[in-house]
């Protein structure tokens, strides 16, 4: 009847997919951090709460720190005499194995990097756990650390786990770990696609299905040999890019259909497990992250993380960059004809191009913005300026050339003359919309045109706030804009973007840097900045500050103009220049600090 029958308060962070129904005990199990902090430090604790008949009880107060993944519970006791509850501990690269009835901790098993999903056999003998960051590195592997480690300015107790990476700095391994729950030991670590998320186990036929979020694939694992039998590509309509983002997976009771939540498509993929092929797609709300099949096999239950966006009419005290209302949908499983109609709707909803209806012309002349993808452009040099935390209307709402609302204008010609001159002379971007919610995922959308599930959930608690290139699990396997430009042989210059640091804001230093600039004094002790990824670092302008509000944007702009003079002197400029100007982030109305107008 679409009614809420019970609510429980959680004092802390709920685990990712952290709610589980235990059909044997007929109760809900919630992974979370309601015992918010341990004595003596600031790490939120992960515990397990049970809810039954409207009453809550703490099953286990502390099994780990920061964040839990998706748990699983067995229906029967195993040979060791207990009924296992398996909880991935995402931040500590372990799996906690509990007695589901008593809550007692049986063991902690070391697995791969950033464990996420889990499944348990009905008899409680074995479990499989997916690892976002794949296997633990071996000697000779190319690695980067996931997070900045202790002292990180966002997470003082953060870990810095080494992750196997490729030449782009993206995690290059994804694995599923098999655990013997009787002995409490790992038996196998199986390579799958990248960022394996949801798992579905068909024990009758010995198949484990794995949704690979950063590969746009589903791996089919033989649970007898512990090997991947097949890989199902989720590339509808000839898509070549990355972004379908499979996150969750479920089996129909008869095993004849696999349903995959494709977060990037806002759709459920329907897969034939015999042919390992996609039958079609079913539209959902925004960013589906869970899917289950009803007991009568007639309906899908779909959870969408962001539902229909920011709730209208919410309190102004709440932050819209985090405040989304998820949606739960009950969708009748379609027949063949309805599925074909749904599939067409998914393509239309995503505005996916139909090049077969409008093929590119080999005779097309170069114009600034080509009419069709793949046709030539007359633009030879792109300067990509990255700023923070402001809307189109706050800067340009009153410009008659654009689709804006003058009532939302905050900064006019007197405050931001350069911004507005650039907008008038070059490009407005008045109808360019971004999915970025905050710095941690916004920089991925800016540089990669996608944020991985690890960032989007988010799953980085206890590791990083990955807006400075300090976490390979935040890097798309397709790479960033500079990787694409480099593949085409273009020269690139990066000013400050995606370069880790530990900014320390001191207003006195900011004032001094501003006064020095006004008096024509060069920046004292020019920063020597470096990207963690060598593939990016070769393009970095090393005397340009990172994200650090001690350096006003006018100082940064002056450094860029000096570099522009160097390019002019040699009559050659990079095809792509990426310039970070983060000053408009500001410090609000903090006393003794520059005003927002000055920051902007």
Instruction: Give me the secondary-structure category.
Output: alpha+beta
Number of helices: 10
Largest sheet: 4 strands, antiparallel
Mean pLDDT: 88
Q: What's the Cα radius of gyration?
A: 26 Å
In order across it, which strands form the biggest sheet? Answer: 1-2-3-4
Q: Count the E strands.
A: 28
Outline the low-pLDDT stretches.
35-40
End-to-end Cα distance, whole Å, is: 50 Å
Write down the overall geometry: globular
Topology of this structure?
Blueprint: E1 14-22, E2 27-32, E3 45-52, E4 55-65, E5 72-73, E6 84-89, E7 94-99, E8 105-110, E9 115-120, E10 126-131, E11 143-146, E12 161-164, E13 175-180, E14 185-191, E15 196-202, E16 207-212, E17 217-222, E18 227-233, E19 246-251, E20 258-262, E21 267-272, E22 277-283, E23 286-293, E24 299-307, E25 327-332, H1 336-349, E26 382-386, H2 392-396, H3 417-425, H4 439-448, H5 453-456, H6 481-487, E27 492-495, H7 507-518, H8 534-537, H9 553-570, E28 576-580, H10 596-599
Parallel strand pairs: 26-28, 27-28
Antiparallel strand pairs: 1-2, 2-3, 3-4, 5-6, 6-7, 7-8, 9-10, 10-13, 11-12, 13-14, 15-16, 16-17, 17-18, 19-20, 20-21, 21-22, 23-24, 24-25
